[in-house]
Structure formats: C-alpha cells, structure tokens
Fold this protein.
Amino acid sequence: MNTNMKFFLKFITISMLLVACKNETKEEVVDDEKKPMNILFIAVDDLRPELNFYGASHIQSPNLDKLVEESLVFNRAYCNIPVCGASRASLLTGMRPTRHRFINYGATADADAPNAVSLPKLLKQNGYITRSNGKIYHKNNDDSLAWDNIWFPKGNIRNYQLEENIIANGNANLAVAGATAFEMAQVNDTAYFDGKIAQRGIADLKMLKNKNKPFFLALGFMKPHLPFNAPKKYWDLYDRGNIELPESYVQPKSTPKQAFHKFGELRNYGNIPKKGDIPDSLAKELIHGYYACVSYVDAQIGLVLDELKRLELDEDTIVILWGDHGWNLGDHKLWCKHVTFETALRTPLIIKVPGKTSGQQTEATTEYIDIYPSLAELVGLESPETVEGQSFVPIINGETSHKDWAVSKFKDMVTLIKGDLFYTEWVKDDGIAYARMLFDHKTDPLELDNLAEKLEYQDTVNQLAVELRAKWGKDFLN
C-alpha cells in the first residue's frame, strides 16, 4: 500500500471517530436534558408554622431558614384533615378526605383508596427510584408497591433514652402510665430516631448519586411529635422564663362545645393530669419541649441538605418540606390536633425548585392535595384522574393564583377557608348542619368571636354553606 493510500485511510478513520464522538456528545446532552429532576420529599410530624420565616423570631431553626432563602414559602397552606394517617394518605394520593375516606390516624391508602395511583407509585412507574425512610405513611407497609425500599429505625416508637421512662413505657408502642410527655437527655443526636433517619438519608443520597435514574427520596422525621424527646443541648437553646402561654388561652362560650376536645393523646402520658386544664408551669414545660424538638429536627434536616449540596445534587433536586398538620400548644386551652381551628389546619409548606425559587413568599391559599399535581407537573408527568388537587406550579412561575379557598374536615367537622373567613359546620351523614362557627381573621385572627349565630352574618353564613357543599367534593357524603 503506497503512502498516499495509508494517509487517506488514516484520514477517513479519524474523521469517523470525530463524527462518532460528536454524535455521542449530542446524545449525552439530549439524554441529560430529558432526565427529570430528583425530588427530596421531607415530612415533619406535628410541625406547626411557628417558625422564624413565619414570624416566630423566638424559634431557632437556622437550617430551615437557610433553605427558605432558596425556596417559595406558602403562608396560607392547609392540611385537608388534622390527623396524621389520614393527612398523609390524602396528600400522597391527591384525594380529599370524605365522611368515609381518610378519617383517622390509622387511615391507609391501601384500604381507603385501593384504586389510586399514589405519587410515589406514579414516579416509580415513570423510571424513578423511590425510597421511604422514617414516617411517610402512618403505617410503614402502606402502599408498599410504590417503593423500591422502605426503612424505619428499629426500637420502641416512643424512643425514650432515660431509664425511668424506658421502664415506665415497657414494651408498649403507646405511652402508658408513668412515661413522661417529654424527655431531656444528655445524648448524641443519633440516639433518637430523627438522628438515625437523617443518617439513613445521607447514606441514600451517596448511593443515589451514582445512579443514572432520577430519585424520589422521602424522609419522614418524627419530631416534634409527642413525646417531646430531644438531646439536652436543644433544650438549652431556650429559656423557659421567656416562654408565655398563648394569647388565645381561653375557650369562649360563643364557640360550639363540639369544637373542643380533652386532648386524650397528651393525657396518655404519666405526668399529665387525666382531666382539667394543664397547670401553667407544666404547660410552659411542654411548650419548651416542643421548641427543643423543632430545633433538634432542624439540625437533622440541615445535615441532609448539606450532604445534598456536597454531592452536587442540589441543582438537580426539588426539595419540598411539609408538616402533616398543625398542632395546638395551649391555643384555645387545647393540645394536639383533631380540631378545625386554624392552629390545627395551617401548616408549614416550602418548596425549592432550582432555577425558579429564591426566597419568595405567597399568600395564595393552598391545600395539601395540591402537592401531588404540582410535583407531577414539575417533573413533566400527568396526574391520574383520581387526583383532586390543583397544581401550584403557576405560582412558582410567578403567576397570580386565582384559588382563594381550601376545605378541611375532621369527624363531623368540615371547614371552608375562604379568604379571611373560616366557616365550619358539624354535619351527619345526611349533610345537614347541627352546629356552626364562623371567624373573620381580618378582625379576629385568634378565632375567639364566633359570628355564625349573629343576625347580621346570616346572609354570609348562608352563602358560605352553599359554597362549602360545592367545594367539599362530589363524593363527600358517599
């Protein structure tokens, strides 16, 4: 073979290699463009919106505050039912609670919505790796086919560290006489479940970093759920001498008696009176414990978010954080949830979408069933027909929301939130009201003056009653 022919063949070979490399690069770019964003889905049990970025400057939550700087904060987000099992199943299926669906803490998606395609299942069907760590659904095995892996820390769910509480609680997963409603222990963060959940999340992120598929990583933190157990250093962040009982520490006679309960969830604990009001000193100790737990879980979330950034996954990952419902800390002399006052319905909700959010806030009224269609839209998926929520992606894109209402219910109570008005009816299976209450947050943000039976508000009540029935869902009474 002469020299010219060798040169020609070498030229052809190099040209073909260059074209192949160029095409391969193009394919990599196209594939990268098509790859949907990851989702880090953070649930926090019993977290009320008493946080720095909601105006509560006494709360120390530096990691959530930092996340907010890159997020959109929803100032008017509401759960659709103020009890954990039902709220989580409703949120993850995008379906409203009714009189017979999602009614209590033990509600499951499997039993109440067996034909629904849940959010994690939709994502899994579309190529996502789905992992559930900690408390996502109330029951760990609920919707099990939606997950590639489900993990929960081993041990007693109350997770006491002090010997006297361990002995008093025995082997029960529910509190029994003697175990306290809070615990301050000189232990490391990983002694309690939330520290373990954070470390599991960090390990998963490291593993998922090397996968060529998008992920849906759900982390369900346990605190500030009762008992208020947290390492001592988080209790030390607060001075109990500065803690005051809420301004709404009263039960007005104009409010229907059905609106109040005896907070049996709290009374299960050994150091809580079995009836009557909580003594002021004990009430302040409970508030102190709740604050300590908020700061403790904030620190654990911070570790996960730091790892997300260290692994350079933060620019490819949507982060959404929510509390499953509100919580009463003495508001209306109540503790726990299980009511339709705003303190039990209003929730923290923040979402970080890389390239789109940077510390904005919205006053748009948002329901938890809106989360499913929003996340689906953000990653380019169509929601199933069973999803009843409305996507808030337009808000993320800077558009004005035209939705100014939400509906929440618990047992016989069903509430329409319409602008500044909170209207509640107690209804039986026939849908006829047997008690009502109405608060105008413009003049009564603490919900102390029930307007429902006042003559001058009857036209408003009648209008809200009609609108409530139009919005509570076509299957509400079925």
Observations:
- DSSP finds 14 helices and 17 strands in the chain.
- Residues 1 and 7 are 10 Å apart (CA to CA).
- The two ends are 87 Å apart (CA to CA).
- Residues 5-9, 11-15, 17-32 have pLDDT under 50 and may be disordered.
